[in-house]
Amino acid sequence: MVTVNVIRELMKAVVESYREGIAWASQWSEVLDSDGDRHYPACLWSPPTVNLTADENGIITESIGIDIAFVDNHASDRTGEQRDQVYERMQTVAAHVWMRFTERYMQEEAIYQGVNIALRQGGPVTFTAIWDGPESQMTGCRMTVTVTSPAGGDWYIGLLAGFDEASRTPRGYEACVRMLRLPETVTGYREIRYPKMAAAREQAALLAREIGLGDPNKASLVSV
After folding, report:
1. Burial 20-44, CB ≥16 within 10 A → b, else e
2. What is the C-alpha separation between 105 and 100, in angstroms, rounded?
3. Which stretches does DSSP call E strand in 96-172?
4. Is the dihedral of CA 208, 212, 215, 218 positive or negative?
5. Average pLDDT, stretch 94-106?
6. Are residues 90 and 132 in the same domain?
7. Which of 36, 70, 104, 182 is the most exposed place for a label (fewest CB within 10 A)?
8. Which of 183, 175, 212 is nearest to 199 (CA)?
9. What domain count does the chain have?
């Protein structure tokens, strides 16, 4: 399962590998998380948001809202031109970081600490200017974007508890084997794989109802 903390660590790795030497910090509170000795430019990870939605087939999708600020400090008597230059530089950094993140974890297959990274972009990436904070002279760019993570290959795990009983008849055994082999049909690039995932779950639901196992779409609420 791709959690908020997994996405945070993936983004942190991308930021810290950036050639400009961007410092990373998870800053939720101006009081408790601020650091007077922090190196700049910096990337500040803000509190994320998480939503769970189900489509008409009952497939659960987790949507995670990412909110990151890319900032640099400047003199208190900065000019408008200096402000604009800092913003442009930080916006460019933010765009490069996002493109590298998508290349590593959305366009290609990736595994992080045993977790299969299956992410999609859920809407546009928005870059918003920020400047002259109340506590410090910082200017930069706020990047917000939503990524979605379908339940993936874990959706059928909730069915396993009933397989022992259901597989004791020839018809039940055949149905159980067919359900266990359904994930084998979910192949290809991600834009191809997701429709196949939905089709596999629909087929599993039909087979499960035939042998009294219930709907795997209901079981997915537990696995997400």
Report:
1. eebebeebeeeeeeeeeeeeebbbb
2. 9
3. 111-112, 115-116, 120-121, 126-131, 138-150
4. negative
5. 93
6. yes
7. 36
8. 183
9. 2
Which residues constitute the domain of residue 172?
Answer: 152-223
Please report the pLDDT score of residue 128 as a whole number.
96
* CATH code of the domain containing 37: 3.30.70.1700
Which residue would you say has higher pLDDT here, 188 or 11? 11
Q: Are 64 and 43 in contact (CB under 8 A)?
A: no
- Cβ-contact 90, 72 below 8 angstroms: yes
pTM beyond 0.90? no
User: Do 83 and 146 sit in the same domain of this protein?
Assistant: yes
Query: Do residues 63 and 95 share a domain?
Result: yes
Per-chain mean pLDDT for the chain: 80
Q: Taken in order 96, 98, 102, 105, is the CA torsion positive or negative?
A: positive
Do 16 and 44 fall within a single domain? yes
Angle between helices 80-105 and 4-16 (to 10 degrees): 120
